[in-house]
Amino acid sequence: VGLGLPEGPCLAMDREGLDAAQARLAALAPRLDMSPPGAEGPLATRIARGARGRAVGRGFYQYPPEGPRPGRADGGAGVPQGVGAAEALHAALVNTAERMLADGVLGRPGDADLLATASPGMARDRGGPLFAADDRGLLAVLRDMKALAPMSEALWAPQPGIEARVREGQGYFRRAAAISRA
Fold this sequence. Notes:
The chain has 182 residues and is mainly α. Helices cover 47% and strands 2% of the residues. The protein is built from 9 helices and 2 strands. Strands 1-2 form a two-stranded antiparallel ribbon. The radius of gyration is 17 Å and the shape is globular. The protein starts with 8 loop residues before the first helix and ends in a 14-residue tail after the last helix.
């Protein structure tokens, strides 16, 4: 899944600093009906081992003179096989957009994609998270959600609307063929 983000979430947290990222996520969690990051999570594990982010040369990535490279996989246990970081992020974006559609915060799927591409984030030529879900196949995104849900129900437990779209053979933009590409 190529989302077209200028930098991935791990690089962004490294730039911000892992302590600041953890504090921001802890403050945001109650607003999303989620638990704050725990002591066994990937941020806390890295922080406990001295990784603080780019400023100290070590976070999710290491920062040797030749440029950033992925660090050791501290705290990555429990991630399902076959679901990469980009797929996990995409699944969370799609699930959140579906929740916002169901709650009436967004009027139509294109609103989520417009927000994602109008702000500094996703590349406009990729069409946004819901267009990308149709392009990849909503069934594949649903499978990722189901695999990831045990890690965080609030992020990945599939919204009923997603399951209904798959059951009815519909994508977000009435591209039924996109459902079966998985």
